[in-house]
Amino acid sequence: METFSEDPMGNNTLNCTIDHSIHQILSPVVYILVFVVGLPANCLSLYYAYLQVKAKNELGIYLCNLTVADLLYIFSLPFWLQYVLQHDNWTYDELLCKICGILLYENIYISVGFLCCISIDRYLAVVYPFRFHQFRTMKAALLVSCIIWTKEILTSCLVFTHGEVSKDAESHMVCFEHYPIKTWEHNVNFYRFTAGFLFPFSLLLFSYYGILRVVRKSYGTQKKKKIQIKRLVSSTIIIFLVCFGPYHVLLLMRSIFENSCEFAAKIFNIYHICLLLTTFNCVADPILYCFSSENTYQDFAKIRDTCLKYIRGVETEDKGTYPMNTPEISSPFVVTWTTEPVRT
After folding, report:
1. Which entry of 18, 84, 100, 117 is 20 to 30 Å from 228 by CA?
2. Nearest alpha-carbon partner for 165 in 272, 14, 8, 25
3. Residues near 43 by Cβ (< 8 Å), separated by ≥ 6?
4. From the CA atom positions of the chain, what is the Rg in Å?
């Protein structure tokens, strides 16, 4: 590798010595776990999202895009795994470093975008069941999906025009790591925090507050179903906060306070732990949005039972599957509740 980038202010990575040992200890475990669990889970998620599209359900469009974003990032994990196992030494060319970095950020912000689309769609369906049908069609979902992908791709092209491979104090070629952060990164990080996290999270809270308010006042909804809906909505917000919240808080802190190697070294470990939390979004999405549906759960249970029979090599008694005491279609993201007219 011959190219490396320098900060125009003279603060380049070569002059900043930071202990990267957390990458060799924690990162490989997370990357392997997410790859092994996330790849088959998202493949199943993509299949069930396709069934939603086939049934002319606009939510299937959002679920498909969400899953594709997760899969693209999962396919980049072997490169990141090799990178951290080689003590943060990027042995490929800079173009591949940019591609892997773009897939990392695309996974975060495209996931956030489609989570907001799903929450707004459900809000309109539950709170205004007889209005705004023009915003809840297949064509509208395709248009919104194209806008989200185009926006994030253009943003990445504008942001990642700088050199993303730089040399550290040990002469390793590091990918997407600048310590302290460069001047141009400050404004980008402020944009990521406000437009990429704070605003979408506000939309998420607004949408689900409206959903819970309507469900709470609905006398036609059974108590157990109300509890299930509340749990699923709460789980969505918790996953959003856990996967994306810590990273964006640390990103904001770096942009405000990081102007020396000393601060960068102090915050390095916690920042990268928070960055690893965003990776678990690839596992959380299919579990929450697909396997929470009773029909999908029963199909998954059948696949599990078939695999167990094959492994044991004997025919076992069919014990059937057990309902989860969920709403009519238990996930609030693939639901048609009683407040919404039946769609054909």
Report:
1. 117
2. 14
3. 71
4. 22
- Chain position carrying tokens 């980008």: 188
Count of CA atoms in the C-beta half-sphere (13 A) of 324: 20
pLDDT in tens, 267-297: 889 999 999 999 999 998 887 765 555 555 5
What ranges in 55-137 are assigned the alpha helix state H? 58-85, 94-127
Determine if the peptide bond prior to 180 is cis (ω within 30°): yes
Contact 180, 260 (CB under 8 A): yes
For 340, which DSSP code? Answer: S
Structure tokens at 330: 């238990």
Q: What is the pLDDT of residues 64-114, one digit of tens each?
A: 999 999 999 999 999 999 988 888 888 888 888 888 888 998 889 999 999
Please tell me what DSSP assigns to residue 199: H
Domain range annotation of the chain = 13-290
Cα dist. 330→52, 120, 138, 151, 224 in Å? 15, 18, 22, 32, 11
CATH domain 13-290 topology:
Rhopdopsin 7-helix transmembrane proteins (1.20.1070)
Question: HEC states along 136-163?
Answer: CCHHHHHHHHHHHHHHHHHHHHHHCCCC
